[in-house]
Design a protein that fits this description.
This is ABC transporter ATP-binding protein. The chain has 348 residues and is of the alpha/beta class. It is 34% helix and 25% strand.
Length: 348
C-alpha cells in the first residue's frame, strides 16, 4: 500500500527526517506518533507529495510519489493539521472546486459531494460561507475534501485538534467507519484517541522510527509486569489461600479495606494473563469479586520512554517487540512477537 524507503529531509543543517523506513499495509488504522519536532508532519507532507525529499523514495500502490505524482495522489486523501480552506467560498462551492481538482467526473460529482457531506455531517451548512463556520465545522469541511473521491488511503494530521468532546467522539466514529473500506493513517497528540481507534502504532523520535507494533504489545513489552487489581469480600488470609494455586502469579500485595473487603494487587509473570484463572478460582471458592481490572504500562508511558531516551528502543527490542533501532553505526532490529512475525521494512 505505502512503502517509505530510506527517507531523508534536511532543512539547511537541520535533519528533520533521518533515513526513515516503514510499510503501511491495507485495511488498518495506523497511529503515527512523535513529540513536536519529531518529523511527523514533514514525513506526511512528503508521503502526500506536498514536500520533496532530500533522499529516499515513497511508493503509493507501487507509484513513486516524486516521479509519478499524479498517479500516486489518486490513491490518497489528505487532511493537514491546518485544513486548506478558501474562506470566501461556501462549503458546497469549495467541495465542487476540490472535486474538480481531484478529477472526479462531472456526471458523478454532485452525488459524491452529497454523499461526503452526509458522511461528515455538514449537509446542513453547505450553503454557508466557510469563514462563518465554527472551528469544528471547518475541520469537518477539511475532512470532507480528504474523503472526496473515496481514495484507498486517508491521511489525517491532527484531525480532532480544537474540537469539543462531542465532536471528537464523532470524528473517532467517522474514522472507524472509514477504516472498513480504507486504510487510515492518523497523527495525533491525544494518545487516548490513538489507543482507542488504532490497530498499529508507529512512533518516531528525532526523525527516526523507534517502534512499530500494536498498542497492546508495546504496553506489555515496556512494562516489567502487568498488575491485576481485584476487590473481594474476603480476608487477606482467604485471598492468599484462593490465589495459592493460580499459575502465572509473581507476587501479591493485599490491602484490607476495613469493610469486610480487601483490595489485592496481583503481579503477573512476564507474558502471563491471569485474569480468567483468578475469576474462576474465586468463583469456585464462592467468594464474590467486586472488582477485577488490569493495570500496568500505558501508551502514555510507552510514548514518554521511547521519545525521551536513546537507549530504551534497544532495550525494548531485547524484550521481544518489533522495534526499529536507529543509530549512527547500527541497523534496525526485527524480533518475533508471539506467533506473528512482522517484517522489517529495511535497514535504517
Amino acid at each position: 500500500m505505502i512503502e517509505v524507503k530510506n527517507l531523508v529531509k534536511k532543512y539547511g543543517n537541520h535533519l528533520a527526517v533521518d533515513h526513515l523506513n516503514f510499510k503501511i499495509e491495507s485495511g488498518r488504522i495506523y497511529g503515527f506518533l512523535g513529540p513536536n519536532g519529531a518529523g511527523k508532519s514533514t514525513t506526511m507532507n512528503i508521503m502526500t507529495g506536498y514536500l520533496g525529499a532530500t533522499e529516499g523514495e515513497v511508493f503509493i500502490n507501487g507509484h513513486n510519489i516524486l516521479k509519478e505524482p499524479e498517479e500516486a495522489k489518486k490513491h490518497i486523501g489528505y487532511l493537514p493539521e491546518q485544513p486548506p480552506l478558501y474562506m470566501d467560498m461556501t462549503v458546497r462551492e469549495y467541495l465542487e472546486f476540490a472535486a474538480e481538482l481531484k478529477g472526479i467526473k462531472k456526471a458523478k460529482r454532485e452525488d459524491e459531494i452529497t454523499e461526503v457531506e452526509k458522511l461528515v455531517k455538514i449537509k446542513d451548512v453547505e450553503h454557508r460561507l466557510i469563514k462563518n463556520l465554527s472551528k469544528g465545522y471547518r475541520q469537518r469541511v477539511g475532512f470532507a475534501q480528504a474523503v472526496l473521491g473515496f481514495p484507498e488511503i486517508i491521511i489525517l494530521d491532527e484531525p480532532s485538534v480544537g474540537l469539543d468532546p462531542k465532536q471528537i467522539i464523532e470524528i473517532r466514529e467517522l474514522i472507524r467507519k472509514l477504516a472498513k473500506k480504507h486504510t487510515v493513517i492518523l497523527s495525533s497528540h491525544i494518545l487516548a484517541e490513538v489507543r482507542e481507534v488504532c490497530d498499529h502504532i508507529l512512533i518516531i523520535s528525532k526523525g527516526k522510527l523507534v517502534a512499530s507494533d500494536t498498542p497492546e504489545n508495546l504496553e506489555r513489552l515496556l512494562g516489567e509486569h502487568n498488575v491485576v487489581e481485584i476487590e473481594a469480600e474476603a480476608s487477606p488470609s482467604d485471598i492468599r489461600l484462593v490465589l495459592k494455586n493460580v499459575p502465572g502469579i509473581e507476587k501479591i500485595d493485599i490491602k484490607e479495606n476495613g469493610e469486610e473487603t480487601s483490595t489485592t494487587f496481583i503481579h503477573e509473570k512476564k507474558g502471563e494473563d491471569v485474569r480468567l484463572s483468578v475469576f474462576r478460582a474465586f468463583a469456585s471458592a464462592g467468594i464474590p469479586l467486586l472488582t477485577l481490572k488490569a493495570s500496568g504500562t500505558t501508551l502514555e508511558d510507552v510514548f514518554m520512554e521511547l521519545t525521551q531516551s536513546d537507549t530504551v528502543p534497544e532495550a525494548l527490542a531485547k524484550k521481544g517487540g518489533w522495534v526499529e533501532v536507529q543509530t549512527a553505526d547500527s541497523k534496525s532490529n526485527s524480533q518475533e512477537q508471539g506467533e506473528e512475525v512482522q517484517e522489517n521494512a529495511g535497514d535504517l
